[in-house]
């Protein structure tokens, strides 16, 4: 179905990115719509397709306690329904926590795309210094795309939207 998950630690720029992704094309039924498995952030609609953006908060929880493992499993099953995961990190502030989530995202089915969105690149002065690092990440983890972005300036946001569109199934997804 036409669902895309936006995943990442607090403050990496997820809401900023969501607002840019939705642009003016926001159509939302209630303030905090929710299905049993997903918290819906917003819906992008054009002539052909709808993309439902969801969040998946449990992924960053350490699995030391049983309750955490449960929350984590809920997050994972929520991700089972999506056709694309946008994993957002702060290009200036990469942490071990990010890598932990990436490890979890590696257990995946093959028709789910994973895009690593390295945000806040507008803050990075020496952009070429980022290349070896991006290379290393690409070798360590299996991404469909590694995309430096600026959510606030809108850099490469259209590219994410295009990828989301092409990852959707052909038939339109009608939100009930
Ligand atoms: P969230 O907690 O992941 O939803 O993050 P927010 O969207 O609330 O953003 C956290 C902070 O990062 C805010 O102060 C944003 O203004 C800032 N921010 C988000 N995107 C960018 C970006 O592309 N560039 C810069 N320089 N700051 C950004």
From TrEMBL:
Q: List where in the cell it is found.
A: Cytoplasm; Cell membrane
Q: Which GO terms describe its molecular function?
A: GTP binding; GTPase activity; ribosomal small subunit binding; small ribosomal subunit rRNA binding
Q: Which UniProt keywords apply?
A: Cell membrane, Cytoplasm, GTP-binding, Membrane, Nucleotide-binding, Ribosome biogenesis, RNA-binding, rRNA-binding
Q: Name one GO biological process term.
A: ribosomal small subunit assembly
Key word GTP-binding present: yes
State where it is primarily located.
Answer: cytoplasm
GO CC, sorted alphabetically, is: cytosol; plasma membrane
Q: List the residue ranges of the region (G5).
A: 149-151
Region: G4; residue ranges are 119-122
Tell whether Acetylation is among the UniProt keywords: no
Indicate the segments forming the Era-type G domain, all copies.
1-170
Membrane topology per the record? Peripheral membrane protein
Q: Which protein family is named in the record? A: Belongs to the TRAFAC class TrmE-Era-EngA-EngB-Septin-like GTPase superfamily. Era GTPase family.
Q: What protein name does the entry list?
A: GTPase Era
The organism named in the record is Shewanella gaetbuli
Kindly list the organism's lineage.
Answer: Bacteria, Pseudomonadati, Pseudomonadota, Gammaproteobacteria, Alteromonadales
User: What is the covered span of the full protein?
Assistant: 43 to 218 of 337
């Amino acid at each position: 179905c036409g669902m895309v998950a936006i995943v990442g630690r607090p403050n990496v720029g997820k809401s900023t990115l969501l607002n840019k992704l939705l642009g003016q094309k926001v159509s939302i039924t209630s303030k905090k719509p929710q299905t049993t498995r997903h918290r819906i952030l917003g819906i992008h609609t054009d002539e052909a397709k709808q993309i439902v953006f969801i969040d998946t908060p449990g992924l960053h929880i350490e699995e030391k306690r049983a309750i955490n493992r449960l929350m984590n499993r809920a997050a994972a099953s929520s991700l089972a329904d999506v056709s694309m995961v946008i994993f957002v990190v702060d290009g200036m502030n990469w942490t071990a926590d990010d890598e932990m989530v990436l490890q979890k995202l590696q257990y995946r089915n093959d028709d789910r795309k994973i895009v690593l969105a390295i945000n806040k690149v507008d803050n990075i002065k020496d952009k070429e210094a980022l290349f070896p690092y991006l290379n290393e990440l690409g070798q360590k983890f299996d991404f469909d795309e590694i995309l430096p972005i600026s959510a606030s300036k809108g850099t490469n946001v259209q590219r994410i939207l295009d990828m989301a569109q092409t990852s959707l199934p052909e038939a339109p997804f009608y939100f009930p």
